[in-house]
Design brief:
Layout: H1 2-5, H2 8-13, H3 23-27, H4 33-40, H5 43-56, H6 73-82, E1 87-89, H7 98-101, H8 115-135, H9 144-169, H10 201-219, H11 234-248, H12 251-267, E2 289-293, H13 306-310, H14 317-320, E3 323-325, H15 327-331, E4 343-344, E5 355-357, E6 372-376, H16 377-390, H17 394-405, H18 432-443, H19 450-456, H20 476-482, H21 496-501, H22 507-510
Antiparallel strand pairs: 1-3, 2-6, 3-5, 4-5
Helix pairs in contact: 5-8, 5-9, 8-9, 9-10, 10-11, 11-12, 11-16, 12-16, 16-17, 16-18
Length: about 525
């Protein structure tokens, strides 16, 4: 249980100033219920705990090192994007993210840094903090609307965290319902809490469903306008529900909640925006952003940041380990598609690889500023179109897709039908669903985590040097593994620290396959 407990009190007592600490420092954090009860005793104080959770989402220091590839949620999604076929890291640089790209991080499971421990500890940190808030629901004082606002967010954070853990540490839900997933904790934990066994994938999704529905119930019963776009409001909760339902293949729910998310977002004047109106994808104030974090100058993580890795013009890591789109995906855009501006096929640094990204840029190079965006409303339109297609409403899906694409390509039209998907993503079925997914691949490149879609779609993929991937990333051995939709390549191994501290998990029985 020790690994899960690590940051629990840090998130509550140091809510807005989480920083990297050694294991010794964390072990001496006082474990008292008094302090946490004070923090969650009223809605007015509990909001600080919620803000601390969001602060964790863009802060380094949730492992004992390697902060250059561990700068919060955006780092985890960048790794997930590089695990797919559309995103190229042209050089190894200092190694950051390159080994995610090569599927060569599982060997790091024995220590408290790197991807196996980092992802596990990150999301269980959010869960541990959220559990203190959800448990205080009945005793928390304050205006009922404010209580609902605070506790509703905690339930949404917990739903999101288990959803992400399920996508990293197990195979996708449909077809693997009875396979082992992750332990479930819904009560506050301390260093003395007994660790739990892994639950099945189906059981974890039952918890996710319960939590997101509870979040919606509470957030719909609040009159509290959210303090900032970092806070999950009802629109974002609906958006998360749509994401969850996509993985569950509950298409009625995808349609319902994507539609609700769009409607709620419009109440905040959030809608699809022309590409020119959100250049750089670096400001949560943009009118298409549903959820993200505003990072001010004194909160930037400088070298250990998303934009340092992405923006080559900064002259740092993004210049030595360039992030590129594959040639084939770029060429799937129409000649007048405004998103072509997100990549530069003429950049002299492209070499034999893909095309340099220009989608993500710093706001200010001198101060290292740039906001992290976690959800845009465009995603909801694409989810809605996919749901309509999967429900047999091709005409509605075409219209939704064309309404979205009117903001991207004035020449766009679509008369495709059907739901067929090819066995691997380099092949074409010609279906409407494939067309919708293609637009997702282009629109959400670099920000969503491509491997999440590949998994739920039950597809495999192959990479090629002709498409711009370096030979190490397009090896025959790697392609043989990733072309199999049942692959364990994209299922992360559980960190050894969890087995060492949890008597109800046995590494000889409960560890995920390494290859």
């Amino acid at each position: 249980m020790k690994a899960i407990y690590k940051y629990t009190l840090m998130g509550l007592l140091g809510a807005t100033m989480l920083t990297a600490c050694s294991d010794d420092q964390l072990d001496t954090t006082p474990s008292t219920s008094v302090a946490t009860e004070k923090m969650t005793g009223s809605a007015g104080s509990a909001i600080a705990a919620i803000d601390g959770i969001y602060r964790t989402m863009y802060t380094t220091g949730y492992t004992s090192g390697w902060e250059h590839e561990e700068f919060g949620l955006s780092a985890i999604n960048l790794a997930a994007d590089l695990m797919g076929e559309d995103h190229i890291q042209a050089k190894s640089g200092s190694g950051w993210f390159y080994y995610d790209y090569l599927y060569d991080v599982k060997g790091d499971y024995t220590h408290r840094q790197g991807r196996p421990y980092g992802v596990w500890n990150f999301f269980y940190t959010l869960i541990a903090n959220a559990n203190y808030v959800t448990t205080a629901e009945k005793t928390m004082t304050g205006d009922p609307s404010d209580v609902n606002y605070v506790v509703g967010q905690a339930y949404a954070i917990r739903a999101f965290s288990y959803f992400m853990l399920a996508q990293w540490y197990s195979r996708t839900l449909v077809g693997h319902e009875t396979e082992p997933c992750v332990p479930i904790y819904t009560e506050p934990t301390t260093k003395d809490t007994q660790g739990k066994a892994r639950e099945t994938v189906a059981k974890v999704y039952e918890q996710i469903d319960s939590d997101i529905k509870k979040a919606e119930e509470l957030l719909s019963a609040t009159e509290h306008a959210r303090n900032s776009k970092s806070h999950i409001n009802l629109a974002v909760a609906y958006g998360l529900h749509a994401r969850i339902a996509q993985v569950e293949e509950k298409w009625d729910d995808v349609l319902t909640y994507s539609t609700k998310a769009i409607a709620e977002a419009k109440k905040e004047k959030i809608n699809i925006t022309e590409v020119s109106q959100f250049a750089g994808l670096n400001k949560v104030s943009a009118s298409n952003v549903m959820w993200g974090v505003n990072i001010i100058a004194d909160q930037t993580t400088t070298y250990a940041s998303f934009f340092t890795h992405m923006d080559a013009d900064m002259g740092k890591y993004g210049a030595s380990a360039r992030q590129q789109i594959t040639r084939s995906l770029y060429n799937k855009m129409g000649a007048n598609d405004a998103r072509r501006a997100w990549w530069n096929p003429e950049d002299p640094a492209n070499g034999d690889n893909g095309y340099q990204q220009e989608k993500f840029k710093f706001v200010n190079y001198a101060t290292w500023e740039g906001d992290y965006i976690f959800m845009r409303v465009e995603e909801m339109y694409l989810a809605k179109a996919e749901a309509e297609c999967m429900l047999g409403n091709d005409g509605d899906a075409q219209n939704t897709l064309k309404a979205f694409m009117a903001y991207r390509d004035p020449d766009y039209t679509c008369a495709k039908t059907g739901t067929a998907m090819s066995a691997t993503t380099d092949l074409a079925s010609g279906s409407l669903r494939e067309e919708i997914i293609k637009q997702r691949r282009i629109e959400l490149w670099g920000e969503f985590g491509r491997i999440y879609d590949i998994r739920r779609l039950h597809q495999g993929f192959v990479r090629s040097t002709a498409d711009g991937h370096p030979s190490a990333a397009a090896s025959a051995k790697l392609n043989a593994a990733t072309s199999n939709p049942e692959s364990y390549k994209w299922v992360m191994v559980i960190p050894q620290a969890e087995f060492d501290g949890n008597a109800n998990m046995d590494d000889s029985k409960d560890q995920n396959p390494f290859d």
